[in-house]
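We include this case.
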Amino acid sequence: MHLRRLVALLAVSLTASAQLRLIPQPREIKPLPDVAVTSVTVLCNACDNDDLFAAQDLRDALTQRGIPTGSGLTVRLQRLAQHPDPTFTAAMQHEGYTISFDHNTLTLTGATAAGVFYAAQTAKQLFDTTASGFTLHPATIHDYPAMQYRGLSDDLSRGPIDTLDFQKKIIRTLAAYKANLYSPYFENTQQYASNSLPAPPGSISAADARELVAYAAQYHVMIVPEQEAFGHLHHTLTWEQYQPLAETPHGAVLAPGQPGSLALISQEFTELAALYPSPFLHIGADETDDLGLGQTKAAVDAQTLGPVYLNFMQQIDTTLRPLHRRLLFWGDIAYKSPDLLKAMPASFKHDTIAVAWEYNPHPKGFAKFIKPFTDAGFETWVAPGINNWSRIYPNYTYALGNIQQFTHDGQALGATGQLNTIWYDDGESLASNNWYGILFGAAAAWQQGESSISDFEQSYAQVFHGDATGKLNQAQLELMAAHDLLKTQAKVGDGSDGLFWLDPFTPDGQDYAAKIRPYTHDLRVHAEAALTLIAQARAANSNLREPDAVDALELGARRFDFLGLKFQISDEIATGYALALHNSTSTDKKTRELVSPELSDINGPDGRMQDIKDGYALLRDLYQTQWLRTNRPYALTPVLEHYDYTIGLWYAHIDKFKTAQRAWQNQKPLPPAADLGLPPAPNP
């Protein structure tokens, strides 16, 4: 499949600069002949502050691309009320817009501030930089969103915590691609005055929250905080004063029968409501796996899990009703009890929104995750995922398929929102790797029906990076092919961090080595093709936009390449030592003279063990640089310690191997491979 996609992408890349590539694709678009641009004036006459902000945001973007300010071309922003347009339909009123071009003027019209702003975001993408100068790709556009709520859930509790500046960058980027909701995910990383114990130093403060809310409002993005209120509370429940509230000792789930559970929820969400004034609060309530295993066992044994779970959800709703917010909750537990959902009180259905989530592709569709809620009368959102968790690089084959189909099915079944998700399960994934999935999620939620994956794959690099060559698109596909090779052919997962850290000399490592061995060459070819394409894209344009994301893409390719190299070299070490051991027993002098060079190839100035140690060391430094560009220092140390531990592990292999080299130099027999921690040589 990926070979065909690569061939197709190579073919279209030759003409990509002549095509109109937009993310999201507008609902109705009629391209017009290109216009050479010498300078641009952005006008917004008699505008309010919102539209003046949109105009300035557009000016800034064009200036950053090097387009001079002047009278060569005019871009005019205006409201529908002052400039009636019979083509502006009722469906376009809230966030829709039109773009037209006439008499060297690009006119952007919206009925609302959001509509004007989104017109300006599309206008940014109509300008192109070429070797000969600047070009406008004018078009007649009528556009409006398919889904009312288009958002991103950002995990701030599994290790990485975004800096405030990077959260602002996320806001700007979401808005640029017409998403209107950002949901920071908290287990224990929002600081609460009423509950100060769980949050680590340096996490999200009340001042951070207020500043981000004010910043996001300019971009028509609402901030909807998620504070886990049922499960995923381990970092709170490890504190001794909260032990009476834990379902199991130092577990992760609040015990519904404990009155202090609702008091804790009330304290935290009352503060959240004061900090984040959106119409929604997200209470989480997913993966309550411990429920019924501890304090609530008797209730679950008597009533079964569904009634106990949903009864506590009603109690949470009643407790938080004075805040006058609608409560989002994850749907993974409740959808398994469709009859109970239908029987829930009307007040609960009015107060809550079910967020159905599932992160893998499903060829037969996602109705089973959505319909239990829509059939029961709940407003429902869908939550796909970008598949970045615990991965060397996100698995975008899975992510794009999941986002495409789940969002399409959500629209077809009446879901009003999409909440794309980022998770950092093992605390290692890098934020700058995520843009590909974030942009496709925004496009899928805005566009009607099934968003085209191939169109997105052909548009991303030009729109996001200003890469007219299409080579960064091809690099993304190479890493997708690397994932597919590991998952579908080698069957060792899809490029997990665990595989990256695995010592091939261990029994577990040998099991995986046997599976991956036939594919290491192809894995490295894909990774190195990506590295070459990245270098070519940089050479063609030294001013690529979003350079941090290009660096992160390069690091992902380097990690894939190193993964293949590590298993190749480990085999060579085992084979080389087996040969040295065999030659060491020979009675032929010349054969015995081959032993020392063979040992040096394994452990010497350019030895294979040194290659692995040095590979981890280089990736460690590149990783640290990437982390600090987007995250607070909190939680970086454990990942760097993993690098340091693994480098130390290879130093231990090196030192142990030196004993064999010294034995040989002292005319003693070489020890068996197992004594050095080496596996047997693989079968040829």
User: Anything to note?
Assistant: Confidence is low (pLDDT under 50) at residues 6-18. The chain has 24 helices and 18 strands. The chain has three domains: 28-143, 149-450, 472-676. The first strand starts at residue 28 and ends at 31.
